C-alpha cells in the first residue's frame, strides 16, 4: 500500500472478495528523512501514514517492510548502470520484476500468505491471462508484462475492471481519505523529478561529442551521454544547424566512445526490434513466427508486428516504422481481444 | 485475544476508571478562586497527597505532568539548565546506554543544541549498570556534571537497576540523580525518599491509570528550569491547567498499584516463569534476555535466532497475540534495539527479539495461546528470514 488511492481500493476490494488481507507499505528509501519534504513519489513518511490510515479504515493489519537495500541494489543502482550503458531503463517495471512480485512475494509466501495484491490497473482473471485495464489511459499491463507465470499465479489485480474515476469514487464511498490524492507520475526515488541531476550526481560529468549521423561531423558537445534518450530533441545545444535546417534528434548513444549521435526524424524510424530475456505468459511459447501487436514503451503506440522467439532472444518485424525505440525499454506483445487485449509476452529491447 | 504487551500500556483499573468518570462530570479549574475551582483544587491536592504517600515523597515534591515523556524531559533538560545556570562549567550529563528514548533523545538533544557533553554508562550482558562505573565517572568529572539519569527498570528487557546504590554514589558527590521509574512503579517496591534519588518519573497508563497524566517527583532542594511557561500551576516548574479527572484517576491507580505490588508481583512472576519455561520448551534455541533475577515480574524478553522480530510480531498478531519488538521504529521500520546492542548482542540477535509483558489482567490462558501459536510462527519467520541472506 503506497499511500495512494489505487492500492487502498485494491486492498478494500480484496477484503470484500473474502480474502484475509494484511496491508504492507514498502520502505524503499535508505534514509526516509531525505524524502520527507518531497511530497511526490512513493516513499515519503506522509505516504506511509496515508497508507496506514487507509488500512485502519479498511480494518486490516498494516506493516512497513524494509526493502530499502534490495530496492537500492536491484532498482536504483540498475537504473544508474543502465543509463551509464547508454540504455533507457524503466524502473517501475524493474521494481515489479525484482521487488513487488519477487522480494515482497517471496517473503509473503514464506510467512504464509498466498498472493500479493496490488493496485495496478490491469486485469488478471481466472484464465490466468494478463489483460489491459478497461481504462486504457491508466493501463499498466506494460509494466507487468515482465512477470513470469509463477509470479502471475500469485498475483491479484482487483482494479482491472474499473476506470481511475471509478476507483476514486469507490474510495470516497468507502471513506478513504486518499480518494482525491493526486496521482504520482515521477520516479519515486527522484523526489524533485530531476532525473538528469540525479544521474549527474551519481555518474559525474563526462564531456563528449555530439556527432551528426550522416556527415560524421562533430556538431556539438555534451557533459554526459547518460543525459540523453533515443528520440530526444530538446536540450541538445548544437553549435551548428543541420544543412537542411530541420531539427535533429538523438539517434543513438555509444558509451564506449561517449558519443551522442543525432540525425533527422526519419532516421529514428525503426522497423526491426531485437530484444533479450523473453517472458511468455499468454499461452504456449510459440515455436513459429506469430502475428500480434507490440508496444515499445510505457503509454507508447501499439503497432502490428510479426514476433519470433528464438532461445533467449525475441525479434519483431514491425508493420509500420516506429520512432524513438530505446534499448533498455520493454517490448510487450499483445493479442487483441474483445474481452481486453491479452499480454502474450515481453522482452528487453537490445536494438 | 491474548494481550502480552502490558509494558506498552495496561488496561485501566476499575476504580481508576470510576474515579475518572465521576470527576470528569464535575466542572472546575483547580486554579479558579470560586467554589467550583476550590472543589477541583481539593481533588488535585488530595491526589497529590495520595501519590506522595504511596511513593514515599512529600506532597510538595509531586509535580503533575502530561505523562512520562514530559516528566523525563523536564527532569533531564530542566535540571541541566538550572544547574548549568548556576555554574556554567556544569555541562556534562551522565546517562546509561539503555535508557528509554524519552531520556536518550533528551540527552542527545542537549548534546546537539546546548553544548552538553555526555558520559554514557555501559551495561553488562544482562543490561545491568555497575555503580563502580558511576563512581569512576563522578570521581573524574563530578564538578562538571549537571545530573545523572538512569532508569529504575528497563522497558525492553526488564532488568531492574541498583538504583539506591547509584543514587548514593551521586549523592556522595552532590550531583542530582534522576530515575525513570515508569516501568517500576507497581511492579517492584519504589520509595522516593528511601531510594535517595532527587527526581523520579512515573506515568499513569503503565499502572492502571489513564494515559496523558503522570508526575515528576522532584526533591524540594532540586531546581528545574520549566519547559512549559504559563500559569505556573505546578510549583512554577510546570504550567498548564491540570486535568483534574486524570490526576484523580492517576492517584487512585498509583495507590492501588503500590498497595497491591507484592501480591501482584508474586502472581504475575509465577505466570511469567511459566511462560519462559514453556517458550524454551517450544523453541529450544531461544535466548532469554535480561537479568534472570533482578527483573520486572511481568517481563519476558527473548531473541529467536534466525528470525526477525517484526515478522514474528506480524505472525503472532494474525493469531490474535499482541506483543512487541520492544524497540523503536524509524518511519515504521524496526531498528535493532539499542538496549540489546548495549548488552553486547550483535545486529542479528538484536533484530530477532520479541518482548512479552504480562500485567494485572493476564491469565494462564494468555500463555497457552502464545505457546499454541509460537512454534509455527517461528518456523515461518525463519523461512522468511532465510530469503534475506545474500542472493
UniProtKB/TrEMBL annotation, chain A:
- UniProt feature coiled coil, ranges: none
Question: So where's the catalytic machinery, residue-wise?
Answer: 95, 188
User: What residues does ATP bind to?
Assistant: 26, 119
Would the keyword Mitochondrion be found if you checked this record's keyword annotation? Answer: no
Q: What does this protein do?
A: Catalyzes the 2-thiolation of uridine at the wobble position (U34) of tRNA, leading to the formation of s(2)U34.
Return the PANTHER family for the record. Answer: MITOCHONDRIAL TRNA-SPECIFIC 2-THIOURIDYLASE 1, TRNA 5-METHYLAMINOMETHYL-2-THIOURIDYLATE -METHYLTRANSFERASE
- Mind telling me what this protein is named? tRNA-specific 2-thiouridylase MnmA
Source organism of this protein record: Micromonospora halophytica
TrEMBL record, chain B:
Q: Which GO MF terms does the UniProt record name?
A: cysteine desulfurase activity; iron-sulfur cluster binding; metal ion binding
Required co-factor(s) are: pyridoxal 5'-phosphate
Q: Start and end of every Aminotransferase class V domain? A: 3-370
UniProt keyword annotation of Iron present: yes
* Catalytic activity of the protein: (sulfur carrier)-H + L-cysteine = (sulfur carrier)-SH + L-alanine
**Which keywords label this protein?**
Iron, Iron-sulfur, Metal-binding, Pyridoxal phosphate, Transferase
Write down the InterPro entries for this protein, in alphabetical order: Aminotrans_V_dom, Cysteine_dSase, PyrdxlP-dep_Trfase, PyrdxlP-dep_Trfase_major, PyrdxlP-dep_Trfase_small
| Domain of life assignment | Bacteria
Q: Which Pfam families match?
A: Aminotran_5 (PF00266)
Task: Give the family per the record.
Answer: Belongs to the class-V pyridoxal-phosphate-dependent aminotransferase family. NifS/IscS subfamily.
Name of the protein in question: Cysteine desulfurase
